[in-house]
Design brief:
single chain, four-stranded mixed β-sheet, four-stranded antiparallel β-sheet, 12 helices, 10 strands, nucleotidyltransferase, Group_II_RT_mat, RNA-directed DNA polymerase, RNA-directed DNA polymerase activity, Reverse transcriptase (RNA-dependent DNA polymerase)
């Protein structure tokens, strides 16, 4: 057993992973085992699961496809792993994250320890107030569904030298998905909903961060949502063209030409915020769409005929507020 796999499967790391998943109230996948039942299940089956992992015979279960409506129409596909697989993914993530964190850009804020969306907004405001007021908003088309797995695992393998860990991560990428009771292969993409996916997405898009830094561009990125700011319309159009070309050529990702745009700060919605100029200075405000969505949620949660207990109603209100 490699040293890295030893760390992942250690009692301390697995306990930490279990506690983290339990605290996040992880939903159950296709096997029907809930977070409440998984402790008993693991006590009875962990030795067998661990042995299979070490022999490379463990097969992660397919994820359960769940469609989440987007505020602007369309749906986002989430893949919900079984609770056992969520815990194993979390255990892998806990060990790999400290290896990759030092490599990540200071301009990247999504899915990273100690980093929040508000910090991305603060940095973006600094650029706007320094005069970089032309926005290059590049939309990656279905990023999580379209990530090329071979390219991703090549990047993972540059830092992770334990072949057993590489094998296990690859199995999670290729575990497949259950859609309306039917199994589908996953030879491309990384399922949004698993605990490994956020780290893997940052490993992939760190290549974009490095390219933008090498070009001396001002940018912020939160997950697959990247904003570049420049000082003129001509520069913005040039950056849109050259960066789009680089993404499609080097990362084998598709840029959504319809949604990608060069725009001004007043027309930008980023991480729930809009931007206004007050007394000669750019400031961020909750975007009107975010406010309206918040009001709709509050109205729904305070609706009198909603037949749930007051305790549950208060819990849901606290989550929204």
């Amino acid at each position: 057993m490699g040293q890295l796999m030893n760390q992942i499967l250690s009692k301390e790391n697995m306990k930490m992973a279990y506690k983290k998943v339990k605290a996040n109230k992880g939903a159950g996948g296709i096997d029907g085992i809930s977070i409440e039942d998984v402790n008993k299940y693991l006590k009875e089956n962990w030795i067998d699961i661990k042995t299979k992992i070490l022999k490379r015979k463990y097969k992660p279960q397919p994820v359960l496809r769940v469609e989440i409506p987007k505020p602007n129409g369309g749906v986002r596909n989430l893949g919900i792993p079984t609770v056992v697989d969520i815990i194993i993914e979390q255990a892998i993530t806990q060990v790999l994250t400290p290896m990759f964190e030092p490599q990540f850009s200071e301009h990247s804020y999504g899915f990273r320890p100690g980093r929040r969306p508000q910090q991305a907004i603060v940095e973006l405001l600094e650029y706007l107030n320094d005069g970089y007021t032309y926005i290059v908003d590049i939309d990656l088309e279905k990023f999580f569904d379209k990530v090329p797995q071979d390219k991703l695992m090549y990047l993972v393998g540059k830092a992770v030298k334990d072949p057993d860990v590489i094998s296990l991560v690859t199995k999670y990428l290729r575990a497949g998905v259950m859609v309306k009771g039917k199994y589908e292969e996953t030879t491309i993409g990384t399922p949004q909903g698993g605990n490994l996916s956020p780290l893997l997405s940052n490993i992939m898009l760190n290549e974009l961060d490095k390219e933008l830094e090498a070009r001396g561009l001002h940018f912020v990125r939160y997950a697959d949502d990247c904003i570049i700011t420049v000082a003129s319309s001509a520069a913005a159009n040039r950056v849109m063209h050259t960066v789009t070309s680089w993404i499609e050529r080097k990362l084998s990702l598709k840029v959504n030409a319809t949604k990608s745009k060069v725009t001004k700060p007043t027309r930008l919605k980023y991480l729930g915020f809009g931007f206004v100029k007050m007394n000669g200075k750019w400031e961020a405000r909750p975007h009107k769409d975010s406010i309206n969505r918040f009001k709709r949620k509050l109205k729904k949660l305070t609706y009198r005929s909603w037949s749930v207990s007051m305790d549950y109603r208060i819990l849901r209100l606290n989550q929204v507020i």
